Amino acid sequence: MELKRRDFLKIVGGSALIGGSAISALVEEAGIAHASPHEEHGHSAEEDHGHGHIEEASGIRWAMVVDMRKCSEQEGCRDCINACHYVHNVPNFPDPKEEVKWIWKDEYHHVFTDISTLDPYVPEHIKRHPFLVLCNHCDNPPCVRVCPTKATFKRPDGIVAMDYHRCIGCRFCMAACPYGSRSFNWRDPRLGLKGRELNYEFPTRMRGVVEKCNFCVERLAQGKIPACVEACKHGALTFGNLADPNSEVRALLRENYALRRKPQLGTKPSVFYIIA
Amino acid sequence: MIEKALQGSSRYWTWIGFLLVLIGAGFISYLYQLKTGLGITGMSRDVSWGVYIAQFTYLVGVAAGAVMLVIPELLHGYHPYRRVVVFGEFLAIAAVTMCLLFIVVDIGQPARLFNVLLHPTPNSILFWDMIVLNGYLLINIIVGYNTLLCDKKGIPVPKWVKFFAYVSIPWAFSIHTVTAFLYSGLPGRHAWLTAIMAPRFLASAFASGPALLILLLLIVRKVSKYDPGEKVLQSIAKTICYAMIANLFFVGLEFFTAFYSNIPSHMHGLEYLFFGLHGHDQLVPWMQTAGVLGFLGVFILLIPPLRRRIGFLALACAAIIASTWTDKGVGLVIGGFVPNPFEKITEYHPTFPEITIAIGIWAVGFLILTVLYKVAISVREQELN
Ligand code: SF4
Ligand code: SF4
C-alpha cells in the first residue's frame, strides 16, 4: 500500500508543477488525504473536499469511523441497527418503498458507487461484506441548503439535525441528499411500531415528515455515546471529535487509510470507512 | 364582468358539470390521502417525487408560455396580438393555480405550509419558487383583468397596468428558471445536474404554452363568435416551431454530453428513460413516442402549406403538447430518481387515487380557464357588435 502510494505521488508530483491544484484535487479525490506533494496547492483542495473550516464555532466536530475490518467479521450482526432503531422508535415497514431506516447495511458497490467501476479486481471479502450506511452529517450538507423551513439544520458541532415539528414534508431534502440517507413517513409510523417495545424517552414521529440518523444528539446531551457505537461489541464503530487532534477518531484516521462516500461532490461527509 | 360566466348554453353547463365531477372525485381522493398519508401514492423512498411534482413542473412551463404573446405585442408593437394576449394571461392564471395546488397535495404536512413563510429560508430554491409563482399569479390577474375591463369600457389601458405587463416578461422567465434550479443544483442527481436545465425548460415552455393556447383559441373560435384571426394563429405557430426546435436541440445536447463523455452516471438517467437500464424499461415507449411526436410537430409547423391547414396545425400542437408533457410531466422527475443514490433501480407506478387527485387538479385548472375564457369571450363578442 505504502509503496504504491509513494509511486503514485512521484508520478503526479512532476505534473503538479503544471496544474498543481487540479492534480492535488485528484489526489484528494483518490482518497489520499493530507498527502499533497505541494503544500501550498494542496491546501485549497483540502478546503474543497476535506474538513477545512469546521472547528471554529464550537471546537467540536462529531464524526464516526467505521472499521470494516472488524465489522465484516461479524456476519449477519445487526446489533448497531437494532439498538438505533429501538432507541429512536424507527418504524419497521418491510415494503422497501415505505421503508424507514436510520442505519443499515448495503453492499460495497452500492455504497461506493463512484469507485465501483473497479469492481472485478476488488478482493472478494470486501465485495461480499455489507457496509454500514447512515447519514454522513456532511460538513456541506445539501439537505440543509434546500430545506425551505430550516427543519433540517446543521448544529455548531457538525451534526445535521431535524425538527420534526417544523418539517412540511416537501421531500426536497430527499432529492438533495446524494447518499439516500433520508426516509419519509409515507404512513403513520406508529403502524410500523405495533407490537414492539417503545423507548418512551424519544418521541415517535407523525406521518408526512422526513427523518434520518441524528448522531444521537439526545444521548450526546446526556454525555452518552451514540447507541450504535455502544451496541457494537466488536469495536467496529468509533465516535469522536474530529476537531481534536488527540481524539480516537483522529488517531484511527492517522494510522489507517479511510474512505468517505462520494467525496467528489464536496459534501464533506463525517463518516469514514476503514476498508482493509 | 364575472357575471358573464353564469350565463351559458346547456353545453357550457354540461362541461362545467363534468369538470365538477372530476374535481369531486379528486377531492375525495385527497381526503383519503390526508387521512392515510402519501403512502396511497406510488412514490417511495427512492422515487420521492412523482406525478404531482411532475405536473407542477410542466404547468410552470405552460404558465410561462403566455409571455410569447406579451413580448411581440408589447416590445415589438405587434398589434394582431392585442386582443389575444388576455387569453394567454388567463391560461397562465389557470396554470399557476394548478401549480400551487400540485405543491399543496404533494407535501406531507399541508397544515404546516405556512412554515415556509414563518421561517423564510433564502438559501432554499423552493422559497424563491414560491415567491415567483405567487408573484406571477398576481401580475397576471392584475394585467389580465384590468386589460379586459378597459376593453369592455372601450377605454385605453392605463399606464400602471402596462407597467405590470412589462414586469410580467422577465417574471415569466424567472418562474421557469427558478423551477429549473430546483433540480439543476442538486449534487448526485446526474440527470438533473445540467447547466442547460433552465434553457431547456424555457424552450419547452415556449413551445408547450402557446401550443395549448392555439388549441384553446381554435375551440374559442368554434364555440363563440370571436375569431382571433388566421394571422394570429400562424404567428403563434411560428413561435412554437422555433421554440420546439430549440427544445429538441437542447435534449440532443444532453445526449451528446452524456454519451460522448461516456461517464456512466451521466448516461444512466438517459439510458433508463430512452433505452432501458438493466432490463428496466417501462418509460421507454413513452419517451420514444415523445421524441417522435416532437419531430412530427416541428415537421408540420416548418412547412407553411401544412401549417396553414387547421387540421394539421391542431395535430402539430397536440403532438407538441404530448411530447413536452411526456418529457417534463413524466420523464424528467422520474429520470432524476432512477437509478437511486445506491445505483439501484426502483420503478414508480402512480396509483389510482394519485392519478385521480392529479386529474382533479387539472379539472380545477380547466374550470378556472373556462370561467375566465367565458368572460373574455363575452367582452370580445361585445366589441364585435
Ligand atoms: S448524508 Fe444526506 S442527509 Fe446526511 S447530512 Fe449529508 S446530505 Fe444531509
Ligand atoms: S421534507 Fe422537511 S426537512 Fe426535508 S426539505 Fe422539506 S421541510 Fe425540510
Task: Give me the secondary-structure topology.
The complex is a heterodimer of chains A (276) and B (385).
Chain A: H1 2-29, H2 39-49, E1 62-67, H3 68-71, H4 79-87, E2 103-106, H5 108-111, H6 124-128, E3 131-134, H7 142-146, E4 152-154, E5 160-162, H8 172-176, E6 183-184, E7 210-211, H9 217-220, H10 227-231, E8 237-241, H11 248-255, E9 258-259, E10 271-274
Parallel strand pairs in A: 1-10
Antiparallel strand pairs in A: 1-8, 2-3, 4-5, 6-7, 9-10
Helix pairs in contact in A: 1-2
Chain B: H1 10-36, H2 51-65, H3 67-75, H4 85-106, H5 115-118, H6 125-153, H7 159-184, H8 197-223, H9 230-261, H10 264-275, H11 284-302, H12 304-308, H13 310-337, H14 352-384
Helix pairs in contact in B: 1-14, 2-4, 2-7, 2-8, 2-13, 3-7, 4-6, 4-14, 6-7, 6-14, 7-8, 8-9, 8-13, 9-10, 9-11, 10-11, 10-13, 11-13
Bound molecules: iron/sulfur cluster (SF4) (2 copies).
Structure report:
The complex is a heterodimer of chains A (276) and B (385). Chain A is of the alpha+beta class. Chain A has a single domain, classed as 2-Layer Sandwich (Alpha-Beta Plaits). Helices cover 32% and strands 13% of the residues of chain A. Chain A is built from eleven helices and ten strands. Chain A has helices spanning 2-29, 39-49, 68-71, 79-87, 108-111, 124-128, 142-146, 172-176, 217-220, 227-231, 248-255; strands at residues 62-67, 103-106, 131-134, 152-154, 160-162, 183-184, 210-211, 237-241, 258-259, 271-274. In chain A, the strands form four sheets. In chain A, strands 8-1-10-9 form a four-stranded mixed beta sheet. In chain A, strands 2-3 form a two-stranded antiparallel sheet. A two-stranded antiparallel ribbon of chain A has the order 4-5. In chain A, helix 1 (2-29) packs across helix 2 (39-49). The mean pLDDT of chain B is 94. In chain B, 75% of the residues lie in helices and 0% in strands. Chain B has 385 residues and is mainly alpha-helical. Chain B has a domain at 2-237 and 352-384: Formate dehydrogenase/DMSO reductase fold (Up-down Bundle). In chain B, helix 4 packs antiparallel against helix 14 (352-384) and helix 10 crosses helix 11. The chains are: A alpha+beta (276), B mainly alpha (385). At the A-B interface, helix 5, helix 7, helix 8 and strand 6 of A face helix 5 and helix 6 of B. Residues 146-149, 151-152, 162, 167-173, 210 of chain A line the site of one iron/sulfur cluster. Chain A: This is Sulfite reduction-associated complex DsrMKJOP iron-sulfur protein DsrO (HmeA). Chain A: InterPro entries: 4Fe4S_Fe-S-bd, 4Fe4S_Fe_S_CS, DsrO-like, ET_IronSulfur_Cluster-Binding, TAT_signal. Chain A: Keywords: 4Fe-4S, Iron, Iron-sulfur, Metal-binding. Chain A: GO terms for molecular function: 4 iron, 4 sulfur cluster binding; metal ion binding. Chain A: Residues 158-187 form the 4Fe-4S ferredoxin-type domain. Chain B: It is a multi-pass membrane protein.
